[in-house]
Fold:
Amino acid sequence: MPMQISSEDDVCLLSSEDYHVKHLVSFKNIQKTYDGLRPVVKDLNLDIKEGEFVTLLGPSGSGKTTSLMMLAGFETPTHGEIYLKDKPLHNLPPHKRDIGMVFQNYALFPHMTIEQNLAFPLSVRKMNSVDRKEKVRRALDMVKLTDFAKRYPAQLSGGQQQRVALARALVFEPKLVLMDEPLGALDKQLREHMQLEIKHLHQQLGLTVVYVTHDQSEALTMSDRVAVFNDGVIQQIDTPTAIYEAPNKSFVAQFIGENNTLIGTFVYRDEHHAVARLADGSLIRALSVVEAQPGDQVALCIRPERVIVGPAGSTPLTARIQEYIYLGDHVRMITEIAGQANFMIKLPASQMHNSWTVGSSISLSWAPEHIRALDVTTH
Amino acid sequence: MSQSAVINAQEQTLDLRAKLKKSERAYKFKSLMLIAPLFLFVLVCFAFPIGTLLTRSVDNPDVHTALPATTSALTTWKGKTLPSELAYAALVTDLANAKENGQIGALSKRLSYEIPAYRTVISKTLRNLPDNSVASKRDALIEIDSAWGELNYWKALKQASTTFTPYFLLAALDHRIDSASGSIVKADPNQSIYVDIFARTFYIGGVVTILCLLLGFPVAYWLATLPEGKSNLLMICVLLPFWTSLIVRTAAWVVLLQSDGLINRSLLFLGVIDAPVQLVFNRTGVIIAMTHVLLPFMILPLYSVMKSIPTNYVRAAISLGAHPFVAFWRVYVPQTFAGLAAGALLTFILAIGYYVTPALVGGAADQMVSYFVAFYTNKTVNWGMASALGSLLLIATLLLYAVYGRLTNPNQAR
Amino acid sequence: MMQPYASTAEKLARFGLVTVSLLVLLFLIIPVLVIIPLSFNSSSFLTYPMDGFSLRWYEELMSSEEWRQAFKNSFLIAPAATALAMIFGTLASVGLSRGNFRFKGVIMAFLISPMIVPLVIVAVGLYFFFAKLQLLNSYIGLVLAHAMLGVPFVVITVNATLQGFNTNLSRAAASLGAPPLTVFFKVVLPLIAPGVISGGLFAFATSFDEVVVTLFLSSPSQRTLPLQMFSGIRENISPNIAAVATIMVILSVLMLLTLEVLRRRNEKLKMQQQ
Structure:
């Protein structure tokens, strides 16, 4: 694909004595508050490498969109500095940042045709009309919408509008592209299709993408790294696998995928494992993640599909089946364990057993590396 | 499926369709019955009176009701030579009857529209009306007034005796039918005032609309960009005048603009002027007051359009590299065009129909079409002229309204 | 909305915008407010500075037979015309909202057309027409004319309210056993009441503000308040005009407040329905 950053790029141009750029974007100690009282973003530190696809994931109001808007220049940090290619951004107005952006609901200009929408960033850069036409043609080609050049945005389907928005953000060849919930308005099937399309564009064009979403499966599918936001703080930033398999915070474990939490009291630590006592007195050995003193409460988190039913495990516990749900390819059981209700188990349908009925007891176990001792959240 | 089953199924569908139609008809009937009272009310109290006005603009009753026999005697008259003795005799009888029925006033007024001297001709003739003993009514009438021996007068009389006439509509456009040649010609300069009045009406309407646009756009934009609470508060400044009686606002402007009014006094006090400036009972006053009255009609639709433009559009333009001014001009402003055009048209439509404000704050040279419609109805009782002017104003309004409907109806917009 | 990172030019532009806007808002509001203090002026000159506080112009109003009659006429004609417009307008809007039938747009345009035709044309038309029906110089004629001028506002506001009306509510009422009239009075009408009342307020304001049609159709004994003001301003503008104007401004403020309360209620209702 012929999308290369132009060498006369005046803003991001590096002089020869600049050392090798490790990070394209750096948030350094960023704080943001709108009313001077409640911080929306608290002490954000985030480095994004060139060519990376980073997703800011979190519930609404967690500060992820505000962070994106500060990078785009539509909000100013109350404290701290954002660097783009090691240049501070605090004096650079948004229209000089050369950052492509795909907006929620696309923000395609309704009074311009698709072609005019795509030509807009080129015409404000005073590009001559021959080059402009060529770039627009290639961009339309890239998103397979060549036949729609003369139409108005309202005449396109949601998916087509989304592709136009994407093409418009890329047509002026920015190195960095921001996307703010770009697929939120599409139905599930189209969304999944577009996720792959965006991912391919990212790889082909060597783009750096900062992507904001509240949809965890979207984040896991597309990203190199996912930053999980809550309460204006990054709870954890890591690869999708690590975020899912090795959450460091209760919030992350609960926000991403399904999760069981058993509350226990920390007893002691041996090597990598913490031992905690549940309400019924049984001791659980878990991967020690949280710093805890004996007597502290800890949250023991385990994914439903990591629970083993049957006597085979190392720490057998007895659970009573409260609810039994057949879902074709797999089976879910909601059980009560050690006095705590709503403990979920997920099993392949092939492993189900006739004797498992509501009210009957089963014994559970798991490998100790799959249960993690985390902080106790209060909610 | 057997033959009978097929037929049965068809019958069932037909039956179902009939039932559907019946129930739909009943439903529709009920809906129409709900609309009917208002429909009839508007028909009787609005459409019908306006229809009357439109017909009056071409209605021409005065001559043929006052001179029925003459009118019929002239139907076959070609106008090459003087009419027959019969027509003269009919005229004498008709005039005598008309005098008895009190129709002379309307008759001579109507005839004087064609030839101003007709008024004296009629009164002179009436004073000396020949009796039956006279042999030739023609000679007698020509004796009384030589006008009866002129083709022009007879042609004018024939022209004025038709049931319908384009006279008033033509006059409202400063034209008339030349009774000698029968073709449409420009009216006499001393009667050619109406095109000027229409031009003045459109001029004042246009100036007021442009002023409303220039003043209204920034306000609407500013209010649309403010947070809800603040803009609602400031909106009172737009809504209170909007809800205040037109007559109150006009009175306020008379008070403000008069020669010892607040504005003149402030200007004198500030030393801007040495003597009071005439601000009221002239064009300046009309334009100031009408701009004030119509400004909310511009601000409110503009505001609602601007409020509906998501901030994302300008942000998107800026993120694509446009300077904020460029983003405003190329992305924001074009999206206000529909609201802008609708607001401007509405203002203009309202402005050209105004009567009260120009009547109170304008001078004689600032009165618009509405004033003359009222003037001809109440003062000179020239209903034909009033109706003709009114009809033309109505047509102009309806045409503009059709354009307005196209602009504001989203189904027809692009 | 102020963009961050504004350049000096942008700040200047913003400053200019705010200044111009504030001046225009002052231009709009000052004439309405400036006349109020003058009605309490003890001298008979309608100008500032004021001589002293006095209620004499209000007393003069109360003692003038002409003005008393004008008040009476306005408060007789406007409510009657409003009631008529509200009943006809609401019925028709409900009829129009029931499904799609042919000529719906045309009927709607016809019903609101009295709003756009210049008043003088309506006035002259009615003058000719009422002369035939012997309705000139009669209260009935004025009420009919004013109701006709107010009807479009009722149709527009009620129609807008009905568009946000959830038809499932009347279906639910019917399924619970309510006959159509009960459904209308117990479910539909209470929910669209804000729209009906705001339409009524517009109709009332129209009648209360009407000069031109009244000028043509009324004899001196039917002079309404605005018509009395119209002739008052024409002859000799005196402070009792300012006193009437003040009363009318207060009336507008009350109507505006009512409308705002209704608007908020309507929005709340719409939120609850969704």
Q: What stands out?
A: Residues 1-19 of chain A have pLDDT under 50 and may be disordered.
